[in-house]
Amino acid sequence: GEVKLKLTVPKTGAERYLDNNALEAPLSVRKEQLRVLVLESYPRWEYRYLRNALERDPGVAVNCVLFHPDIGKAGVGRGYLPTFPKDEELTKFDVVFVGDIGTDKGQLTVEQCAALQKLVRDQAGGLVFMPGLRGYESSLQNTPLADLLPVMWDDAQPRGWGSSTPG
After folding, report:
1. Angle at 20 between CA 15 and CA 26, to 5 degrees
2. CA nearest neighbour of 43 among 22, 16, 74, 19
3. CA distance linking residue 44 with residue 105, whole number of Å
4. Over 33-100, what HEC string results?
5. Which of 55, 90, 140, 147 fits a 20 to 30 Å CA distance from 118?
6. Looking at residue 164, what DSSP letter applies?
7. Is 26 helix (H, G, I), strand (E, B) or coil?
8. Which whole-number Å values give the CA distances from 61 to 86, 96, 125, 157, in the listed order?
9. Residue 38: its pLDDT value, please?
10. According to the model, what pLDDT value does residue 5 have?
11. Which of 120, 149, 130, 105 is nearest to 40 (CA)?
12. Can you tell me the distance from the alpha carbon of 3 to that of 29, in angstroms, rounded to the nearest whole number?
């Protein structure tokens, strides 16, 4: 419901003006759930960790699309969507996590990238990129998501610099 929050700071030392030592503000308390969509190509460690953490939070309703491009069908189970959400369904999400996924066969289409861009532009939806070792996200620079990518791609090294050796 609606409550008033009051903050008071006690007088310190030789303080002369006590008028600014208290502040009141209205506060609206309501139960809401954050709607999250996680898009990923393969069930890598980062995806599994994020999905499990979000599912444990009672303030989050999580759905996933796990594309599995090599086998040609999406992952199934509790919270999984069989395909990328259509426009009307996509508008229900507050945040979308885009994992190691691009526009290769069996992954996102340019139209779906445009829908994600529209979600951010028109609805102020959150968009989080989680790149991976396969480097699929480099193909997103040729889609409507290009302006939203937080990096400048080095065409000479599209998969970035790193080592697959743990350590």
Report:
1. 150
2. 74
3. 19
4. CEEEEEEECCCCHHHHHHHHHHHHCCCEEEEEEECCCCCCCCCCCCCECCCCCCHHHHCCCCEEEECC
5. 55
6. S
7. strand
8. 18, 12, 15, 37
9. 97
10. 93
11. 130
12. 8
Count of other CB atoms within 10 angstroms of residue 137: 25
List, for residues 49-84, the tens digit of each pLDDT value.
999 999 999 999 999 999 988 777 788 888 899 999
Across the beta sheet with 95-98, what order do the strands follow?
60-66, 34-40, 95-98, 126-129
| Res. 150: pLDDT tops 90 | no
For 82, the token pair is: 């069989």
Neighbours of 115 (CB within 10 A): 19
Residue 14: helix, strand or coil by DSSP?
Answer: coil
What's the one-letter identity of residue 53?
A
